[in-house]
Amino acid sequence: MSFWIYTLVAVIKIALMLFVLLTAVAYIVWLERKVVGRIQNRWGPTRVGPFGLLQPAADGIKFILKEDLTPPHVYKPIFIAAPIIAVVFALTSIALIPFGNSVHILGYDIPLQITDVNTGLLIVLGITSMGVYGIALAGWSSNNKYSMLGSLRASAQMISYEISLGLSLIGVLVLAGTFSLRDIVQSQGGHFPGYIPHWNIFRGQIVAFFIYLTSAYAETNRIPFDLPEAETELVAGYHTEYSAMKFAMFFMAEYANMVTVACLATLLFLGGWNGPIFGPPLLQVLLPVLWFFLKVFVFIFIYIWVRGTMPRFRYDQLMAFGWKFLLPLALANLIITAFVVAVRA
Amino acid sequence: MNPNLYLWMIPLLPLTGAAVNGLLGRRFSKKTVAGVALFFSGTAFLLALRVLLSYSSLTLPYVEPGISWIRSGEFHVNFAFYLDQLSLLMLMVVTGVGFLIHIYSVGYMWDDDGFYRFFSYLNLFMFFMLMLILANNYLVMFIGWEGVGLASYLLIGFYFLKDSAAAAGKKAFITNRIGDLGFLIALFLMVQHFGSLDFQRVAAGVAQLPAEVAGAGVLTAIGILLMVGAAGKSAQLPLYVWLPDAMEGPTPVSALIHAATMVTAGVYMVSRSHVIFDKAPTALLVVAIVGTLTALFAATIGIAQTDIKKVLAYSTVSQLGYMFMACGVAAYSAGVFHLMTHAFFKGLLFLGSGSVIHALSGEQDMRQMGGLRKKIPWTFWTMAIGTVAIAGIWPLSGFHSKDEILWKAYSQGPSKMIWALGVLTAFITSFYMFRLLFMTFFGDYRGSLESGDQGHDAHGPDLGHGHGHGGIHESPALMLVPLVILAALSLGGGYIPALKFLAPVFQTESSIGHTGAIATSEPALEESADKGTERFLQFVSVGVALLGAFLAWLLYLKSPYLPAQIAAWAGGLYRTVSNKYYVDEIYNWALIVPLLAMSRKWLWKGVDQDFIDTVINDSADATADTGGVLRRMQSGNLRSYAAWLTAGGAVVLAYMVWLGVH
Amino acid sequence: MHLALFLVFGIVCVAGAVNLLIQSHPIQSALSLIVVMASLAVEYLLLGAEFVAAVQVIVYAGAIMVLFVFVIMLLNAGEEERSQGSHIALLLGLPSLLLVGVLLAWSVTHHATDSVRVGSLYGDPRTIGKLLFTQYLLPFEITSLLILIAIMGAVVLASKPEVTPVGPASGLTTGKEK
Amino acid sequence: MVPLSYYLVLSAILFACGVLGFLLKRNIITIFMSIELMLNGVNLSFVAFASQWHALSGQIFVFFVMVVAAAEAAVGLAIIISVYRTRDTLNVDRVDLLKL
Hints:
The structure holds four protein chains of four kinds. By secondary structure, chain A is mainly α. Helices cover 66% and strands 3% of the residues of chain A. In chain A, strands 1-2 form a two-stranded antiparallel ribbon. Chain A has a two-stranded antiparallel sheet with strand order 3-4. By secondary structure, chain B is mainly α. A two-stranded antiparallel ribbon of chain B has the order 1-4. In chain B, strands 2-3 form a two-stranded antiparallel sheet. Chain B is globular, with a radius of gyration of 31 Å. By secondary structure, chain D is mainly alpha-helical. Chain D has a single domain (4-87), classed as Orthogonal Bundle (Helix Hairpins). In chain D, 78% of the residues lie in helices and 2% in strands. In chain D, helix 1 packs antiparallel against helix 2 (28-53) and helix 2 (28-53) packs antiparallel against helix 3. Chain D starts with a strand and ends in a 13-residue tail after the last helix. The interface between C and D is large, with 92 and 78 residues.
């Protein structure tokens, strides 16, 4: 595969991936408002287009057209840089996610993945950990007590939960034996007798799965842990002073993070694109991708579902839960899986 | 074999006496103190007597091994005791005369407040003297030697409230110490060459060495150094200055220490080490010369003295000169014989002068005395016997011992000059002794004591025969009895066969005469020709003595004004003699002043002040300055620390790179 | 290709470092330091040390620098004022620094001669993990102990004292007007 | 093919910048950060030499340096907070007395 063809394919994949991600982000917003509405026994957006389907487009245009004012006494350079940082890191992590098996077109075997790095998982973790800066700097630079407090809480929360997130993943790594996400998914192929697939969730990682889910909610500041932008207490948290486009960026960053976390969950615990494949060759190529998106949709739905039902943690409860319950549990899980693997090996 | 002589008991008794009196004396009454002192010295005398009585059954020399003291390598010293005829004789003299003087001083010191202190010192002195005499080796003798010096210091300075007494005590002690230095160096040489200090071992070592005729060598050195020690202790020429000043002490002290015992220690030591001197003729010559010169020198000073005790002091120095003259001509037994007789009549004379002073309640200047013949007859008669004895007139002991020395000097002496000077000294001795006798006891009383009593003449009624206060009175019986005994000894002392008694001591060791010419042993001398000359020389010495007496009678009794005229005519000579040839002043000018100046100017100012102080102060300043410099570094400024850190790092890196390159 | 990448990120790195010196506000220097660390991570990748690069990003840039930013925000001390502390710092520091620089440059150019090919040494997590837990187990345990002590120390030092100290500022001053 | 000396020069430059920061900067936190920069410079040379001598131990050491840097940063920042709390300034030249 010569250099140029490789770059061409890469560009196509990136463009495709971005388009899919951004539309997905938009429609997740729509989906969330619809589902939360239905949970709260109301309809949610219905007027803009059939079933409110064009609502995200409407919001997008609103964000672009609204006046983007920057309050005075704000630390200008960082005030502008913060949302950019948040969005950049949120979007880059999608590059490493393999959403399907490789495809044979025009004689080239193209892996349905932007880049396959053998320390893929580590880099994803690195990028998510860099995401903290966006929020931290946003809160501080807007020179506002509430946003300052919000950003301090957000960064503290994200750092604490990052550890348990990392530890929960190690269980999967011990089973898969490699960092590369593609290999992890392939290690989950096949199934146990009785048609139970080899997904990690069934291979003793059930506890790790739940630890991963909770710390993922904390990482993306979603409902049980969405203290930073809790409307009731801190006005709008770290993005109080932001308006229009910058606010939209934060919004987009948050939902992109949600998608990334969901993809990771499917890859590591639900066996990525593994699923029953049948039918004609064209169908066989598309089915893995379908399975992958189906599972991601399930996770997104769980997100929204949790958002609709769970009450919010108090800050000290949140911290205590993260350090005193989740971290030890993750360590225990790690030790048990290591023990089991050692015994079996 | 020899019965156990309990020699170690003899010195131990006075020591316990001294301890008891010294420690508990304050609480005892005077009678108990006197009792304790007399009891212990008396028993020591009895023990010595027991040894003397069993002399016939003894095989001397008798060594009594004591406990071991020093044991380093093969050099061993232990507290052993040694007895032979010489130390037996000395033992008898020391304990005998010592005991008599104890009795005398009970009376004499009765009304003195330091009573118990005096007797504890006296017993202490007895202990050290006995240690000195009975020692089996030079080191134990040296203990006695030093101890005796200490006791003399304590006793001379007994009236410590008087400055002159304290100064005299110090002077005595220091002069002795100078002499002891010579003695010590001699001991060191002995240890180095003979490996031991025991008398027998030293004698054996000396026997192997050839006689050092050439006058240079180890034995001569040891001999001369021993002589220096003896000169210090027995007040010979260079170091005699302390004896006249020692008269500051109470009279019994002068009698015991400065007449009978301590000063004779030097003679005993020289005769004890006669083995060394026999092999070192030059050393012997030195002894002889020093002895003769001291005798003459002291005698001339004696003439011009007015203080009764000073006259006796110089006469002691002179008589000691005689003894050393005897040793110098290798007539050790004659020397020791004279020592014994001298102890008797000089002790008598001192005690007599003590009772005269006692009678005149403290008056010591002969010019204030006179005509005491009637008032204190006992003292007069005993003093007369002493004077006749010391002058060397025929029947008394003085003649026998002094004449023996003169005869040996004439026959064995290296040159006839020694004999001539000896005779001249004898003439001067008899002159100043009779001068003393006539001035104190004859003529009319020149004193002013006629009326009420002055000074401390009151004496305890219960002791003396109740003679009332005031006026010149005879001393109590307690003081007169020792006088009478000593007078008897002075009379008969000459007939004690000391020479034959001492013969084995000096005969066995030395067979060769110092000049090799005439055998020194006395018995081998019986040629008739010599007998004749000896007889003639005896007449010469008695004649000289009588001449001295007549001259004294002529000047001081017949025409009392004559001495004043002669003194005026003599002028300068008389003044120098009466001022003791200004010897003290010369010493002071030559030694003491420069020493003080040197130590003050050079040692104190130069070394201490300039050198040591500056060194210390400078180092202190230096540390303070460096501290000042370093302090500025601790500025508290973090970035300056960083700079220093970087500088350090740079230096280390540079060194490593430099290291790497080479 | 390798050289080009190295030069790009090298320059970014040096620019970040210099920016750290130039900027007066600590937050700016903090961000420039993060840039330096990220570019260093890429340098490590060029040298084939993938695991180190990942850990650099996660631990150094992701955690330690967050701590720094956190503290800067917390204390909110603001601009750095130009106070003339001590001249000796410049007088002695700079020349010695110059000396160090010269020595390093000289020794580097003379000694390290051979060149590096991409991927010549592959520091993948598996081998590093094996090495870390066998040959370097003791240092690993010691450093874990060190971290424990550091945590306790930090907690004790930074916790608010029960009794207010004598000094003017008795509590955390957040958002103080600058 | 990049000669190793380039990497070492780069680490030397980083180290030099660190030391300069250490010397010139007035704010304690900035000084602290320049120390971190120095450590990073050292890490780079570690990895460079590791690849030169094909010994992974170089990279292992980088971990330990990071761990130590983390510990140091934690304690250091705690100290800085307490210094700020008592002295109310972060300027290093102000903080030069042991007593308050």
